[in-house]
Design goal:
Helix 1 (11-20) runs parallel beside helix 6, helix 1 packs across helix 9 (411-423) and helix 3 packs across helix 9 (411-423). The strands form three sheets. Strands 3, 4, 5, 6, 7, 13, 14, 15, 16 and 17 form a ten-stranded mixed β-sheet that branches. The protein has a six-stranded mixed β-sheet with strand order 8-2-1-12-19-18, sandwiched between helices. The chain has helices at residues 11-20, 42-45, 57-77, 79-83, 107-110, 167-179, 229-236, 330-343, 411-423; strands at residues 4-7, 29-32, 49-51, 86-94, 123-124, 142-145, 152-154, 182-184, 187-194, 200-207, 213-217, 220-223, 246-257, 284-290, 298-301, 307-314, 356-368, 374-378, 396-401. By secondary structure, it is an alpha+beta fold. It is globular and about 75 Å long. The chain has a domain at 4-43 and 168-246 and 369-434: FAD/NAD(P)-binding domain (3-Layer(bba) Sandwich). The longest helix has 21 residues, at 57-77. Bound molecules: flavin-adenine dinucleotide. Flavin-adenine dinucleotide binds at residues 7-13, 32-35, 41-43, 45-49, 188-189, 224-228, 232, 251, 253, 310, 322-323, 363, 365-366, 401, 403-409.
């Protein structure tokens, strides 16, 4: 019987388990993750912005599929209430007027620019127009609407006092567990085993809190361990001469509540509701800014009135052994707070000490050498001497990682297509440009 082991229970691994379990006996699907706390990685600390068509040509088909899967999943499962799925109006904001280049892809991330560089503006705002009610107006700043109706959305909600468990991740994981998918956590794969035909047949996992080791049947192995994917591959396939072309880009983030906004999203004291709160048709706001000192904060407002800010990134920070080992840098959080206080409307002059901090975050995006994710089967010849897998849809070692700044958006499409690939079914999106070169 086919049995699939997924290494990594971030959003990519969990999405794949979800779609696999629609066509496979769920108890033959195993999720393995060593982190003591699930979703303490990029999937749990991301902004949750979704776009339909902001992608490089090779991932455009996957992007369109994924955006549609997010909409369907939310419609079928009350995603607005369960994980805060909502439409967003998206703006670029700059103190230095300039032209958006409309480059698409993730070049903006590599050069430290704003995500807004991926698209061209659809309207230049004049006056206060539809600008987010919380965005402070400063003389000379430039605000442009960059989303067209129905092409962007937001999926995460920040209510937890310490950090935001990304509720989409939790919903999908719970759905998998309810169907009978097996979760091994905290646990780590330590070696692969071949069967009598010398083909991949099982994988040995070790619980990280005890000395217990277990062999899981494994005809199909999926590496979906985000930035840790190259390490996982190298540890299990020691004789392989290839390296998975993925590295990490660390990012700090902060969720805060402006001083005058209460927990239900209304203004404290005067009972006034911001216009996005309490209305079923209401939207959230995404703002991609460029500051005078040349960095690119991203801000997302939530229906509960809290605001997420990120954009301080570093490619030189070493990847820790586990996501939960990431240490918050107080200086970087201070810089996020200062920027928030400059950009967000306060009744008095902004003062970062007035911000109510909901949570702080530090995590590692998996970024690929090509700037688009790797979604592919690894050829047997690249697994190293002595390792083969069953032919065709009967087996294989696969990788789904390197989603960079787009892993939340592309998660559901990736899960669906990867499940189709593993199960030998026709693919719902063209991922032929996302292979291992
Ligand atoms: C600050 C920030 C903001 C972002 N905002 C957005 C956004 O608005 N929209 C968007 O689309 N994307 C966004 N992203 C990108 C997105 O978060 C990532 O692309 C996505 O979460 C990657 O998911 P993943 O499952 O591949 O990796 P991860 O979420 O990192 O999960 C990897 C998992 O692998 C596990 N693992 C580690 N070692 C092993 C091992 N040995 N064996 C098995 N498992 C292992 C980890 O414990 C973890 O659970 C953002 C990222 C950052 C950092």
């Amino acid at each position: 019987m086919n049995s699939t082991v997924i290494l990594g229970a971030g959003l990519i691994g969990v999405s794949t388990a979800y779609y696999l379990s629609e066509h496979q006996i769920p108890s033959t699907i195993h999720l393995v993750d060593p982190s003591p706390e699930l979703f303490s990685s990029a999937s749990g600390f991301a902004g949750g912005f979704l776009a339909k068509d902001w992608f490089a040509p090779s991932s455009a088909s996957l992007g369109a599929l994924s955006f549609d899967e997010h909409r369907k999943l939310a419609e079928q499962n009350d995603g607005r209430a369960k994980w805060g799925y909502t439409r967003s109006s998206t703006f670029s904001h700059s103190h230095v007027p300039g032209t958006l280049e409309g480059g698409r892809g993730d070049d903006w991330l590599r050069t430290g620019q704003s995500r807004a560089q991926a698209v061209t503006a659809v309207a230049v705002e004049s006056g206060d127009g539809n600008r987010p009610p919380w965005l402070r107006r400063v003389d000379g700043d430039d605000v442009q609407l960059i989303s067209e109706e129905g092409t962007t959305g937001l999926v995460s909600v920040f209510l937890h006092p310490k950090r935001d468990p990304l509720r989409l991740c939790q919903f999908l994981l719970q759905a998998c567990l309810d169907r009978g998918v097996r979760l091994h956590h905290p646990a780590k794969a330590i070696s692969i085993r071949t069967d009598a035909r010398r083909e991949l047949g099982s994988i040995r996992i070790a619980e990280t809190t005890s000395s217990t080791e277990t062999d899981l049947p494994c005809t199909h192995l999926l590496i979906a361990a985000g930035a840790w994917s190259p390490r996982v591959f190298a540890e299990l396939f020691r004789h392989s001469s290839i390296r998975l072309p993925i590295s990490s880009l660390a990012g700090h983030s902060l969720v805060f509540r402006p001083p005058l906004v209460s927990r239900d999203g209304g203004r404290q004291g005067d009972g006034q509701q911001p216009k996005e709160s309490g209305d079923a048709e209401a939207v959230s706001y995404a703002v991609y800014s460029t500051t005078r000192d040349g960095w690119s904060p991203e801000l997302y407002s939530r229906l509960d009135g809290s605001i997420y800010i990120a954009g301080i990134n570093s490619a030189t920070e070493p990847l820790p052994p586990l996501p939960s080992d990431a240490v918050i840098d107080a200086e970087k959080i201070k810089r996020l707070k200062e920027t928030a206080a400059q950009m967000v409307f306060f009744d008095q002059e902004g003062n970062e000490s007035d911000l109510e901090v909901v949570r702080e975050g530090h995590c590692f995006r998996p970024i690929s050498d090509t700037g688009v994710p790797v979604i592919a089967r690894i050829a047997d010849a690249d697994l190293g001497i002595g390792v083969r897998t069953r032919p065709g849809a009967e087996g294989g070692v696969y990788v789904a990682a390197g989603h960079g700044p787009w892993g939340i958006t592309l998660s559901l499409g990736t899960g669906k297509v990867m499940a189709e690939m593993v199960q030998g079914r026709p693919r719902s999106a063209d991922v032929s440009g996302l292979g291992l070169s």
